[in-house]
From TrEMBL:
<keyword id="KW-0723">Serine/threonine-protein kinase</keyword>
<dbReference type="InterPro" id="IPR000719">
    <property type="entry name" value="Prot_kinase_dom"/>
</dbReference>
<dbReference type="GO" id="GO:0005524">
    <property type="term" value="F:ATP binding"/>
</dbReference>
<protein>
    <recommendedName>
        <fullName>Protein kinase domain-containing protein</fullName>
    </recommendedName>
</protein>
<dbReference type="GO" id="GO:0004674">
    <property type="term" value="F:protein serine/threonine kinase activity"/>
</dbReference>
<dbReference type="Pfam" id="PF00069">
    <property type="entry name" value="Pkinase"/>
</dbReference>
<keyword id="KW-0418">Kinase</keyword>
<feature type="domain" description="Protein kinase">
    <location>
        <begin position="54"/>
        <end position="306"/>
    </location>
</feature>
<keyword id="KW-0067">ATP-binding</keyword>
<dbReference type="InterPro" id="IPR011009">
    <property type="entry name" value="Kinase-like_dom_sf"/>
</dbReference>
<keyword id="KW-0547">Nucleotide-binding</keyword>
<keyword id="KW-0808">Transferase</keyword>
Length: 387
């Protein structure tokens, strides 16, 4: 992202009157306008150039929209362009680039570090921080940390601090869940998934995320904003303590019915009183009644659940859990089923909107994929990457 583009985003965020009606159209116009102007810099500072001769050591993550590869100590997220075009999600990559660029200029210790992006004929690549401690959900399942208030207190504090930081940048996350929180090698929690995040001024109406974490306003399609992230944080705390989401059911429709019935109807038997009070504060039915919205973020810091927690020293605190460090991929267990089955049929194809990709991601680079490891590696997941 160039300085020109950053200024365009700032102007974009400040034009509230126009954006209430034209947020999507306006940001595209400003981006196109800035890209058309002569560049002041010889090269955009956030453009990275992968060395495709480096070998893939394994997968750190895989899901519906891409995969994160460990490439000789570097982490690269690869998003297939053709898949995003055909599924109608190519603009989500543009938003992800803008949001990650904002966090690069204004970093937070509990948000994954971003180093830059680029695109080739088939993929958009994001170079990100290599976090080797494992997904929070996997860690909890493996170590049986469910119900531990000491662990939940630390991990939730990191999450809430990251959300407050994103909101200060006018970014709504929208996709918080345990699988989107990854630990560093020393156990520090960081948010890693910004595929559904968005700059907003007022409300947005797109339904996205995980049903177990849907807020009432998302379900009712009345428009949602930053308070939806506080709701998700409350659901996350409940899950860390009870091993299940508060509205968990067999079908999405049953989940939605429970959500609309209110958090008070959830089974709080595995949850302490202070934690219950905080969850109810974060998951108030009306967005404006949620604790950080109603009383400010300081009210969250002062809450009894966080008694004794040094918020100012949170970044220097020794985490309550330190992942084993025997091997780079020992804390990950990515399975073939985690990969989107749709990738196989469309990701190898050539995207049709080449002008759009060039406009938003710069010149197309040569090369496409990192080399497969030449030596069998017992540390890699069983995906055939090291055979």
């Amino acid at each position: 992202m160039s300085l020109k583009l950053a200024r365009a985003v700032q102007r974009f965020l400040g034009r509230e009157e126009d954006l209430r009606e034209l947020i999507g159209v306006e940001v595209k116009r400003l981006l196109a306008e800035e890209e058309a102007e002569p560049a002041e810099d010889a090269e955009e500072p956030f453009v990275v150039r992968p060395d495709f001769s480096k070998e893939v050591r394994g997968l750190l993550g895989a899901g519906g929209f891409g995969r994160v590869q460990l490439v000789e100590g570097e982490a690269w997220k690869a998003a297939p362009k053709a898949f995003h075009e055909k599924s109608g999600f190519k603009e989500s990559l543009m938003w992800e680039k803008l949001v990650l660029g904002a966090t690069l200029r204004c970093p937070c210790p509990f948000i994954m570090k971003y180093h830059g992006c680029c695109h080739t004929a088939k993929y958009v690549y994001f170079k990100v921080e290599a976090l080797l401690g494992g997904e929070l959900y996997t860690v909890y399942k493996k170590e049986n940390l469910w119900g531990s208030e000491a662990h939940a207190r630390y991990f939730l504090a990191c999450t809430l601090t990251a959300l407050e930081h994103l909101h200060s940048l006018r970014v709504m996350l929208r996709s918080l869940k345990l699988e989107d929180c990854v630990l560093s090698a020393t156990g520090v929690l960081k948010l890693v998934d910004f595929g559904l995040s968005k700059f907003i001024v007022d409300k947005t109406f797109t339904t996205c995320g995980t049903p177990d974490y849907f807020s009432p306003e998302v379900i009712s399609a009345t428009g949602h904003s930053f308070p939806v992230d506080w709701w998700c944080a409350g659901v996350m705390l409940f899950e860390l303590l009870a091993e299940t989401a508060p509205f968990s059911s067999e079908t999405p429709m049953q989940i939605y019915s429970k959500v609309l019935g209110g958090i008070q109807r959830a089974d709080f038997s595995p949850v302490g009183e202070e934690a219950k009070d905080l969850i109810c504060g974060l998951c108030a039915q009306q967005p404006e009644e949620r604790l950080p919205e109603k009383e400010g973020f300081d009210a969250v810091r002062r809450h009894g659940f966080f008694k004794g927690l040094d918020w100012q020293g949170l970044g220097d605190m020794t985490p309550p859990y330190r992942p084993p460090s025997a091997a780079p991929l020992s804390n990950f267990n990515v399975q073939e089923d985690d990969l989107n089955p749709g990738f196989g049929s469309v990701e190898i194809g050539a995207p049709s909107c080449s002008q759009w990709w060039a406009q938003h991601f710069g010149p197309q680079l040569d090369g496409d994929e990192f080399a497969e490891a030449s030596v069998s590696c017992s540390l890699c997941p069983p995906l055939g990457l090291c055979q």
